[in-house]
């Protein structure tokens, strides 16, 4: 019995071994058969994976996002370094670096805005993307405000919380709205239009002798049909002009308010003369200190025939205002003026000088920045004010540029309608955009800001009736217009940083 059991066990082991050996033999034969089989072409060169449309779009969006991240790193690295790429700590302040970033971005985007036409989609997308980057810092400029918090036990505690600074909370959305209005205005000038542009090297332009001595020789010349623009096209241009004019006034008001709130640098104060009389000059000082003051009459007697002369007068008036304000608000309380001049008269003279300054800014929005404005921007340390000033300045410049392009088309149409006046000068045949805005009953910059000369209320405001003016005044008033209306973007020197222009 035991022998049979041992025999059965050995038989099972032998059987299992034979099964295992057969499996090994089958595997070897299989491997030999597969090794001997040649590979086809599809196995040698596998086909690349075909991506679907969604996968391609996803890959492109990821690549674009990575590219934007690299650009953002570069932008903010320059801001953190203060434009000093050596990292030696010799860069400018964060406020000035941010102001220069706004200025340089506007120069790269709007520097070629020479025609009334929509912006290319690539430039518009770049502008909106990068302006959002630069404006993102305003979300972190906060102020502490008191608030109440209710505890778990029902008790109310007073705590301090943070919120966006008030001036940024009010002005940044307003500037974004003005930005959108300007871009929408450019989008309205789509093809087809009744006017068109001629390149400077074209035959039509060479035949026209008026364009050879034009002060804007680098710009393409607008052309209209021989019979002029239609009434609908003329009304459309006038409507766009009024809209852009309102944007210009709002941007100017915000920019003027922000610059006014900036502190006057000590370096600028040290460079001022001792009194306002020596800064203004004898003739302007006497005109301001007379009993009956008329700012329009004073401007009509000034030599405003060139941009340089206007800027010089603006610098002198701003210097006198700073001198008078400092003397009126001296901390020690000691009188620095003659005892014959009362405090009321000092304030009156200072308000009159500010009125003249505002009229200059209103009539000539394209003049360069004054020495005081450059100095304030250069030494400003407030990041919020730097953002508001630079953003409003570039919008003001773009609005003035678009306004000038609309004026050019309307001027050509005016010459077509009145052939006998073609020989007259461009500035004398049509008023400036600022004068047209004032004559049409729209809100002026003085009304928008709520500023004005207080002495006019006591003396009685007189309506400026052109028929009541003398012949001599009517001949002097057109001389207020400059022959060269230059915006911040037409003159590349204006677009440079305040440090390089100082």
UniProtKB/TrEMBL annotation:
Q: Where is this region: Disordered?
A: 1-55, 200-224, 416-502
Annotated keywords:
Guanine-nucleotide releasing factor
Composition skew (Basic and acidic residues), residue ranges? 40-55, 200-217
Does the UniProt entry include the keyword Oxidoreductase? Answer: no
Compositional bias per record (Low complexity), positions renumbered to this chain: 416-431
Q: Does the keyword Disulfide bond apply?
A: no
Protein name, per record: Rop guanine nucleotide exchange factor 12
Q: In which organism is this protein found? A: Stylosanthes scabra
Write the lineage as a comma-separated list: Eukaryota, Viridiplantae, Streptophyta, Embryophyta, Tracheophyta
